[in-house]
Amino acid sequence: MALRIKKDDTVYVRAGKDRGRTGRVLRVLPGTDKALVEGINLLHKHERRRSQTQPGGIVTKEAPVPMCRLMLVDPKTNQPGRVRFEVREGKKVRVHVKSGNVV
Fold first, then answer.
1. Is 100 helix (H, G, I), strand (E, B) or coil?
2. What domains lie within the chain, and their CATH numbers?
3. What would the DSSP string read from start to end of 32-95?
4. Using 50, 70 and 90 to split pLDDT, how confident is the model at 53?
5. pTM for this structure?
6. pLDDT attached to residue 2
7. Pairing of strands 57-62, 65-66
C-alpha cells in the first residue's frame, strides 16, 4: 500500500501528549508504520562521554510517532485533512479530500 505521509510533509498530531501541534516529517519508517516528526514526541536520553571531543550529558531527540496519530496538512489552506489517491494526467497523486488540492 502506498504511504500517505512522506518525508518533508507537514503533519498535524491528532492524539497523544503533543496533540494539536504541527511539524515537518524528518523520516518515515514504513516497516513499523511510524514517522519521526521535528519537535514532536521528544525524549531525553542520557549519553556517556565517547571521547575528549564528544562530551556526554542529556540529549533531547525525537522518538517515532505512529502514523495513525498523524494527519497531513494541506499546504494551500494550512488545514489538516484526509488524503486519497487519484490518477491525474497519467500520474498517481495525493489529493486532500476536503479541498481537492494536490499535495
1. coil
2. 10-96 (2.30.30.30)
3. TTEEEETTSSEEEEEE---SSSS--EEEEEE--EEGGGEEEBPTTT--B--EEEEEETTEEEEE
4. confident
5. 0.84
6. 65
7. unpaired
